[in-house]
Task: structure prediction
Amino acid sequence: MKTPLASSDPRSRHRLIALIAALVAIVVLAGVGVYGLLAGPPKPDTSDGDGGTRPGPVVTSPDEPTPTGMPRLPEIEASDDPETFAGNVAEALFAWDTASGLMPLDYSAVVLAVGDPSGAEQAGLASDVAAYLPSRQAWLELRQYGTAQHLTIDNLFVPPAWGEAVEQAQPGQLAPGTVAYTIEGTRHREGVWNDEQVTSEHPVAFTVFIVCAPTYDTCHLLRLSQLDNPLR
Result:
């Protein structure tokens, strides 16, 4: 009895070979951390014609009054320079203070505000960001010690693995201007333990996937790698 792989129908064999080649390409790209970027490029910026229905980054006016007693959330500064924007995202991702009265979801909103305006990656990005922040329970524990955190960047570069991923991608799978930056840095935490100020430092590494010109006038965040599992 012939097996499916032994089919003598040339058309069947050609379809099987094409399917295997497509699966191999997808596995290679997923293996280097491209995540959901293969869903296709987002729609480019247009000055009109979208009816104002496309969501965009949330921008808070510096002159907008802040409710009494409520801290003002930081903002990620927009930039059309990929390296600058990647650094801005990295610093904001690690900047939080449990004594501020805010919660992890508040800090998540800061990062999500600069996400891809098409919304194609927003659900995945929300999941990525949540993994970088303490859970609600852990946050409440850390709040007892007034724990705050920030990041210092030691190195920021386009990893060679990204070039390999781009070569493997099929035409149209990555939006023009999509790029990955790997960040190596130090996470700093400080708080109060037994009425004494204590600090800790921990090396971290991760990759941010962003899209800039010519798809958009300014850069936007697509996805994040797992913490300490960056592209190299």
Summary: The helical segments are 10-31, 82-93, 104-112, 122-132, 136-143, 160-168.
